[in-house]
């Protein structure tokens, strides 16, 4: 907002109003500049996060594969559990 030359016809209220409007305008410009700086900073943070997306997927695949390998290892190492029928038959077969 451009400052107008003060004319003697302006009242005290009008002068103060113009000063406050100018101060608000300056403050709004400052807020806009700070919001723009925050936006650039957030965009930078999001960009860095996106760079790690493929690495995250790779590690996720690795851990999933390791978990599957561990489950297969456990499955092959432990004997199958005895069912109730086979547990009853064993004592009979010994006699």
From TrEMBL:
GO cellular component: DASH complex; mitotic spindle; mitotic spindle pole body; spindle microtubule
Keyword hit for Ubl conjugation: no
GO aspect biological process, one term: cell division
Primary subcellular site in the record, as a coarse category: nucleus
InterPro entries: DASH_Dad1 (IPR013958)
UniProt biased composition (Acidic residues): 86-95
Region (Disordered): 70-95
GO MF terms held by the record: microtubule plus-end binding
Signal peptide, first to last residue: none
Cytoplasm as UniProt keyword: yes
One Pfam family per UniProt: DASH_Dad1
Keyword annotations from UniProtKB, A to Z: Cell cycle, Cell division, Centromere, Chromosome, Cytoplasm, Cytoskeleton, Kinetochore, Microtubule, Mitosis, Nucleus
Cellular localization per UniProt: Chromosome, Centromere, Kinetochore; Cytoplasm, Cytoskeleton, Spindle; Nucleus
Family per record: Belongs to the DASH complex DAD1 family.
PANTHER family named in the record: DASH COMPLEX SUBUNIT DAD1 (PTHR28025:SF1)
The protein's name: DASH complex subunit DAD1
Organism field: Babjeviella inositovora NRRL Y-12698
């Amino acid at each position: 907002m451009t400052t107008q030359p003060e004319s003697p016809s302006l009242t005290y209220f009008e002068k103060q109003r113009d000063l406050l409007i100018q101060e608000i305008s300056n403050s709004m410009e400052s807020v806009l500049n700070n919001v723009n700086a925050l936006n650039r900073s957030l965009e930078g943070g999001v960009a860095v996060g996106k760079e790690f997306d493929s690495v995250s997927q790779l590690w996720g695949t690795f851990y999933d594969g390791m978990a599957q390998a561990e489950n297969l290892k456990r499955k092959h190492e432990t004997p199958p559990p005895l069912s109730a029928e086979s547990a009853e038959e064993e004592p009979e077969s010994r006699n």
